[in-house]
């Protein structure tokens, strides 16, 4: 049978395509692309000509059987998304799962993913980490999600769109408190690449005078274990008395 390759593409800088990714794109029978125009441009830059299959979040269910039958009849297919690694907050997860369910060969090619690029230069603890992807858009659901990650003691990573960033910062402040440390990694691998590191309060203040622009990865430091404070016997007695009184 055929093979399904998951092929990462650049998240900005066009040089971030691996030799192997290029080889695979050159060898396969078809390329399943999230946006055929976007991928067409990439293929043009790489001087590759290939038939493309349009595969995106709005036609996932109807296209999966077609792609599976091409694989079953021995064809090789590379799946690419608009940017980064397919299946990472991208359509593609379902295709990979469906292919595995049919016992077809799925091969993951390593390459760029925005969250990992951001994590290793964030300055926050790298492992373990939780990758959430995009937060729910509705406020109540977003607050619930943030509530879920509130007590996690390791780094949590989100993707966020620029026009929603300020609201998300406000919601983070509401649930996590203004002093929780976060990192915003913006426009990775591009000309305006930038890391903002600070407390939610500091970063929110920055965005009072600067409009969020470009693509963002948002990283939240884990909840810090309460630091052991030295307590004098008098303070201890005070505390005990208070808790008895209340
Ligand atoms: N599959 C991609 C990956 O491997 O990272 C993610 C696709 S998701 C639809 C797009 C989101 O990824 C953007 O909204 C942004 O949050 C993040 N992203 C993609 N490229 C980025 C970049 N160059 N810098 C910062 N964030 C980026």
UniProtKB/TrEMBL annotation:
Residues spanning the signal sequence? none
Every copy of the Tetrapyrrole methylase domain together lies at 3-203
Known catalytic reactions: cytidine(1402) in 16S rRNA + S-adenosyl-L-methionine = 2'-O-methylcytidine(1402) in 16S rRNA + S-adenosyl-L-homocysteine + H(+)
Task: Establish whether keyword DNA damage is in the entry.
Answer: no
What subcellular compartments does it reside in? Answer: Cytoplasm
SUPFAM superfamilies this protein is in?
Tetrapyrrole methylase
Q: Which domain of life is it from?
A: Bacteria
One GO term (biological process): methylation
Supply the alphabetized keyword list: Cytoplasm, Methyltransferase, rRNA processing, S-adenosyl-L-methionine, Transferase
Q: Is rRNA processing a UniProt keyword of this protein?
A: yes
Q: Per the UniProt record, which EC number(s) apply here?
A: 2.1.1.198
Among Pfam families, the record links this protein to: TP_methylase
- Assign the protein's first listed, main location to one coarse class: cytoplasm
User: Which Gene Ontology molecular function entries are recorded, alphabetically?
Assistant: methyltransferase activity
Enzyme type, top EC level = transferase
The record's family statement is: Belongs to the methyltransferase superfamily. RsmI family.
- List, alphabetically, the HAMAP family matched: 16SrRNA_methyltr_I
Q: Which PANTHER family match?
A: RIBOSOMAL RNA SMALL SUBUNIT METHYLTRANSFERASE I
Protein role? Catalyzes the 2'-O-methylation of the ribose of cytidine 1402 (C1402) in 16S rRNA.
The protein's name in its UniProt record: Ribosomal RNA small subunit methyltransferase I
């Amino acid at each position: 049978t055929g093979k399904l390759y998951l092929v990462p593409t650049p998240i900005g800088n066009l040089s971030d395509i691996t030799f192997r990714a290029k080889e695979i794109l050159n060898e396969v029978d078809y390329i399943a692309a999230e946006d055929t125009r976007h991928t067409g441009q990439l293929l043009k830059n790489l001087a590759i000509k290939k038939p493309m299959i349009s595969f995106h979040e709005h036609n996932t269910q109807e296209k999966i059987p077609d792609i599976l039958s091409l694989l079953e009849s021995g064809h090789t297919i590379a799946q690419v998304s608009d940017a980064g690694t397919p299946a990472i907050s991208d359509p593609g997860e379902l295709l990979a799962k469906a292919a595995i369910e049919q016992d077809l060969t799925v091969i993951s090619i390593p390459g760029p993913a925005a969250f990992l690029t951001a994590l290793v230069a964030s300055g926050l603890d790298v492992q373990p980490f939780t990758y959430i992807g995009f937060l729910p858009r509705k406020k109540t659901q977003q607050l619930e999600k943030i509530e879920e990650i509130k007590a996690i003691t390791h780094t949590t990573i989100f993707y966020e769109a620029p026009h929603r960033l300020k609201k998300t910062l406000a919601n983070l402040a509401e649930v996590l408190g203004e002093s929780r440390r976060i990192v915003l990694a913006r426009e990775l691998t591009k000309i305006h690449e930038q890391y903002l590191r600070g407390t939610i309060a500091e970063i929110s203040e920055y965005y009072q005078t600067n409009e969020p622009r470009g693509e963002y990865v948002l990283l939240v430091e884990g909840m810090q274990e309460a630091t052991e404070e030295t307590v004098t016997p008098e303070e201890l007695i005070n505390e005990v008395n208070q808790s008895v009184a209340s």
